Amino acid sequence: MVSTGQGSPILCCALNFCLPRMTSLSDQSHLRPPWWRNERILKVLLQVAFVVAVLLVFGILAQNLLASLRRLGISLGFRFLDNSANFGITEGLIPYDPSESYLKALAVGAVNTLWLSAVSIVLATAMGFVLGMARLSSNWLARQLATVVTEIFRNVPVLLIVIFWYQGVILTLPGVRNSLSIGGLVFINQRGVKLPGLDPSGWLVPALAIVIAAGWGIRKLLLVCRPELGSRQRNLWVAAGVVLLAVACWVLFPEPPVRLDVPVLERFNFRGGIQLSAEFTAMMLGLVTYTGCYIAEVVRGSFLAVPRGQWEAARAVGLSELQTFRLVIVPQALRIMIPSLNTQYLTLIKNSSLAIAVGFSDLFNISSTIINQSGRSVEMFAILMATYLTFNLVVSYGMNWLNARVKLVER
């Protein structure tokens, strides 16, 4: 109780109620640091200052660039992309004619880069998983062989590996007439690899529609008539029905929905099938062997990072070795390896620009030709940077989505 001397009892009560609060607020305002010593405000100000400094540097560089181009009588712009390219491209997945524009040539190069990167990512992942698991194997020979392969290719520059495959292996293969044959389906020579392909007919779309509709119908029918079936049994019934219906379409239709297109040797070269050029094959093998060895280390490290107690706990509840590996170890290792796999995929896409060393018509190779013809180096490097950035952001988005799907959800 605060003594108020000669004051009324009501005033005394009011002072007793307000004084502690006023003292507390006064203490808090006294303890709060001034804004120039507030850590949160200082962090924001430093970030703003950094952004302003970066913009200032880029502004100075842009002014210097524009001044230099003005002195040379060159103006920036992208209208030159409509000019006729007037150079040929040795291979591409989309049709191209030298009379078409620079923009079409760049599109051919971008598609070639995507095709090379996609095939290399799939094969490098498969190779990395095999080598990584072999390094963890109890078999001494498999473990040592995987270690030798991984350590050799992981510590050699990727450019040397590409040139090794191109000049040391592919160019030393026999000619077209003496091609190496695998089962009469795959042919390998110094011009590349010829693989069997699929030739779709006009009955492919109706067959796919029938098979998809039948699969959906069988699943719905099982849910109604056999609700006691588990998801695995239901999927087996659906798969069996889809396969039987696909075979029936293949037999009963006037012509098969898809034919196997086997390469055939003609007068000078093979015709039909899928033809991978020597340059594409060398580049693909170089990227696969180099990146696959790094992925092998990622896989090995991820499996070793899973606590040993998880194996023991799975055995304690009666799971077999295969069930333990599939249901317990792989999901946990996958969560660990996805961020590192993302990094390896991005590195592979960037390393694909080394295709110019063997003459494969990727995006960088075609851009270099356009720069030599048009002299538009600034615009072309801007396009190159934006294109590779877009490719990498798309891959990162996909891997982040996969990471979000498999990550452990904690409640």
What does this structure look like?
This protein has 411 residues and is of the alpha+beta class. 66% of the residues lie in helices and 7% in strands. It is built from twelve helices and eight strands. It has a four-stranded antiparallel sheet with strand order 1-2-3-8. Strands 4-5 form a two-stranded antiparallel ribbon. The chain has a two-stranded antiparallel sheet with strand order 6-7. Helix 3 (102-135) runs antiparallel to helix 11, helix 8 crosses helix 10 and helix 9 (308-316) runs antiparallel to helix 10 (321-351). The radius of gyration is 33 Å and the shape is globular. The two termini are 49 Å apart. 21% of the residues are buried.
Termini distance? Answer: 49 Å
| Rg calculated over all Cα atoms | 33 Å
Secondary-structure element string: HHHHHEEEEHHEEEEHHHHH
Count the beta strands: 8
What is the compact description of this entry?
The chain has 411 residues and is an alpha+beta fold. The protein is built from twelve helices and eight strands. The protein has helices at 9-31, 39-72, 102-135, 140-154, 158-169, 204-225, 231-252, 278-305, 308-316, 321-351, 363-374, 377-406; strands at 180-182, 186-189, 192-195, 197-200, 258-261, 264-265, 270-271, 274-277.
